[in-house]
UniProtKB/TrEMBL annotation:
Matches recorded under SUPFAM superfamilies: L domain-like
Pfam families for this protein: LRR_8, LRRCT
Coiled-coil parts of chain: none
Keyword Signal part of the UniProt annotation: yes
Alphabetized PROSITE patterns for the sequence: LRR (PS51450)
SMART domains referenced in this protein's UniProt entry, alphabetically: LRR_TYP (SM00369), LRRCT (SM00082)
Species this chain originates from: Mandrillus leucophaeus (Drill)
Transmembrane segments: 159-179
GO BP term, example: negative regulation of canonical Wnt signaling pathway
GO CC terms of this entry: plasma membrane
Protein name per Swiss-Prot or TrEMBL: Trophoblast glycoprotein
Domain LRRCT intervals: 97-148
Alphabetically ordered keywords of this record: Leucine-rich repeat, Membrane, Repeat, Signal, Transmembrane, Transmembrane helix
Amino acid sequence: MVAAALVAGRALQGLHCLELASNHFLYLPRDVLAQLPSLRHLDLSNNSLVSLTYVSFRNLTHLESLHLEDNALKVLHNGTLAELQGLPHVRVFLDNNPWVCDCHMADMVTWLKQTEVVQGKDRLTCAFPEKMRNRVLLELNSADLDCDPILPPSLQTSYVFLGIVLALIGAIFLLVLYLNRKGIKKWMHNIRDACRDHMEGYHYRYEINADPRLTNLSSNSDV
């Protein structure tokens, strides 16, 4: 309902202050702020925002304060960093988020060291991984920010090629089955008939062995 109201039209274009704190938001819909060019103060603190990927601050050229404290943000990506840096008057508050200090954090750390946009940036610390907990983001360097090792590109390409080959083999096998479906059906019927005859023979011998009269009759016939 909130998002629908914000993107509905021009009714809120003159809005200066938007308070959305403590609403349990996990994310903000795309272009939810696009119709608020006069906004000066935006408070999104104390929610559960995990990402700002779909949020654009580009049109908020008059924005003076952006509160993102006490959310679930793990990293800010390059697009968001560039938009925040492009706002001429903004002050950003990022305290108390569970920052994940791995290789994906490198660009944000570099940005934090260079920008004056973020207030209290010296208080921002890592929450994950365990070995990085409570490390100050401004004190990190590229050697500290690593991710789990990944396969080298050549090996990744080999696996992709193998997957394509296996897919082609599977497609050819299915095509062969389809083209020979009548012969396969006849072969299955022959197997079924052979199995049925075999089982009938077993059943007949079982009946003979179970009935002494039939057993004697069979013995006399052999003589």
